[in-house]
């Protein structure tokens, strides 16, 4: 279902930056986004190769540019990692993300040459940040939990990691124009510089990076309360809530009172009556967005599943075979829904407040697939029960999920 053209060349997105500048965070988020958009994408983390090939617990002196043994080992590990990534691209992958510091011109020139020889286009993604508060947060939130520091007391681990950063700082060279296409994300996206970026995928990559914020806040996904069409097992339409649906709307408002902090919550709904009615008892004014409307069932809108099977047997069979790509006549497929939700995902990444999305089964499956990195093929089959709130809380690189079925 690629929602981008597959004709674009294989891409090697090469991260650049000092340690603790959010490279892995960006690499993983970007990979999740590109996979969600249907591109075969893989992150190749050179640190993981180093841990496997050399060992996790190496002292900061291993990273000293004046240490010839360390340099040779780091080059060996980088070669193996890059080779694996390129082999994966040759075997059908589309976008490889090389997650390492790649902090010297010499290292990057070697990467560019190797990728060009094997048919992959290199784009550097450099993250830069001088804010000591952000660096300290990154060290404490991610590095202290890394296998490199298992069993090491926190202050000693921080000291070692700061010494490791200092080694890299001595040899660090920022990417320059003559090295080819690049994107620089400065101070967590306050400033973004692009150079020689062209094509649909890369434009989306840049737009995604421009909107990526690191603020952690919960996000709740909930289907509208039971509607009259739900009671009749009809799909689509714009029916009102049933009495049970109204009871759920009240339970939802009471539940949200227990989740809120001082921070205001943004409530997003579709433009359909059932989501607006579900949000009506909440303290916040909802923001209705057409992009959140349910999958358009086209000629099947308003029918029950049994009627679809009887009146449109070929359509029913085709949908059962490939639910992701099947498009209802004059309606949409799940792949279409994913494409239409792209601006919603960008807004989620940009938004700094907690968000409650009151949505529909199909649309919430597609959003959930992005948030939880579910393979696109599985997303149309994800369980999304009525009257259950999904609470997704971001952790270092993903989200933790809790489900709350509410009484109504
Ligand atoms: O049945 C409720 C509903 O939201 C319909 O409006 C929609 O067509 C359907 O769920 C989507 O689920 P599925 O893709 O499994 O048919």
If you had to describe this structure to a student in words, what would you say it looks like?
It is a single chain. This protein has 408 residues and is an alpha/beta fold. It folds into 2 domains: 202 residues, 3-Layer(aba) Sandwich (Rossmann fold); 187 residues, Phosphoglycerate mutase-like (Rossmann fold). 42% of the residues lie in helices and 16% in strands. It contains 14 helices and 12 strands. The two termini are 38 Å apart. The relative contact order is 0.13.
Question: How is this structure best summarized?
Answer:
It contains 14 helices and 12 strands. The chain has 408 residues and is α/β, with parallel strands linked by helices. The chain has 2 domains: 202 residues, 3-Layer(aba) Sandwich (Rossmann fold), CATH 3.40.50; 187 residues, Rossmann fold, CATH 3.40.50.1240.
Topology record:
Blueprint: E1 10-16, H1 23-36, E2 41-45, H2 46-53, H3 68-90, E3 95-99, H4 105-117, E4 120-128, H5 132-141, H6 154-171, E5 182-186, E6 191-195, H7 200-211, E7 219-223, H8 228-232, H9 243-259, E8 266-269, H10 273-278, E9 287-288, H11 305-311, H12 313-321, H13 334-350, E10 355-359, H14 361-371, E11 388-394, E12 399-405
Parallel strand pairs: 1-3, 1-4, 2-3, 4-5, 7-10, 8-9, 8-10
Antiparallel strand pairs: 5-6, 7-11, 11-12
Helix pairs in contact: 2-3, 11-12, 13-14
């Amino acid at each position: 279902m690629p929602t981008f053209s597959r004709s674009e060349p294989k891409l090697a997105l090469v991260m650049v930056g000092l340690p603790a500048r959010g490279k892995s965070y960006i690499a993983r988020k970007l990979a999740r986004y590109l996979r969600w958009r249907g591109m075969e994408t893989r992150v190749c983390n050179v640190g993981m190769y180093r841990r496997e090939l050399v060992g996790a617990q190496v002292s900061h002196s291993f990273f000293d540019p004046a240490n010839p043994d360390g340099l040779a080992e780091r080059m060996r590990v980088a070669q193996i990692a890059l080779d694996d990534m390129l082999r994966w691209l040759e075997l059908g992958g589309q976008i490889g993300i090389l997650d390492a510091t790649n902090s010297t011109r010499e290292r990057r020139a070697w990467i560019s040459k190797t990728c060009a020889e094997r048919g992959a286009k290199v784009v550097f993604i450099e993250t830069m940040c001088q804010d000591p508060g952000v660096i300290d947060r990154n060290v404490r939130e991610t590095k202290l939990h890394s296998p490199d520091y298992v069993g090491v007391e926190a202050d000693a681990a921080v000291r070692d990691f700061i010494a490791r950063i200092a080694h890299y700082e001595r040899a660090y060279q920022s990417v320059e124009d003559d090295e080819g296409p690049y994107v620089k994300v400065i101070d967590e996206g306050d400033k973004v510089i692009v150079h020689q970026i062209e094509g649909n995928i890369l434009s989306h990559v840049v737009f995604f990076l421009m909107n990526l914020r690191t603020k952690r806040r919960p996000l709740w996904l909930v289907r509208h309360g039971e509607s009259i069409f739900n009671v009749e097992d009809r799909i689509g339409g714009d029916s009102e809530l049933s009495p049970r649906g109204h009871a759920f709307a009240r339970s939802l408002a009471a539940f949200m009172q227990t989740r809120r902090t001082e921070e205001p919550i943004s409530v997003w709904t579709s433009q359909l009556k059932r989501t607006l009615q579900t949000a009506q008892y909440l303290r916040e004014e909802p923001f209705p967005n057409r992009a959140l409307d349910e999958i358009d069932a086209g000629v099947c809108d308003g029918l029950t599943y049994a009627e679809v099977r009887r009146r449109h047997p070929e359509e029913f069979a085709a949908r059962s075979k490939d639910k992701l790509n099947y498009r209802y006549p004059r309606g949409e497929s799940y792949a279409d829904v994913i494409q239409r939700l792209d601006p919603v995902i960008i807004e989620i990444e940009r938004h700094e407040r907690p968000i409650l999305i009151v949505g529909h089964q199909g649309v919430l499956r597609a959003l959930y697939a992005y948030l939880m990195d579910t393979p696109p093929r599985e997303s149309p089959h994800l369980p999304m029960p009525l009257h259950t709130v999904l609470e997704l809380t971001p952790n270092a690189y993903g989200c933790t999920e809790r489900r709350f079925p509410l009484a109504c």
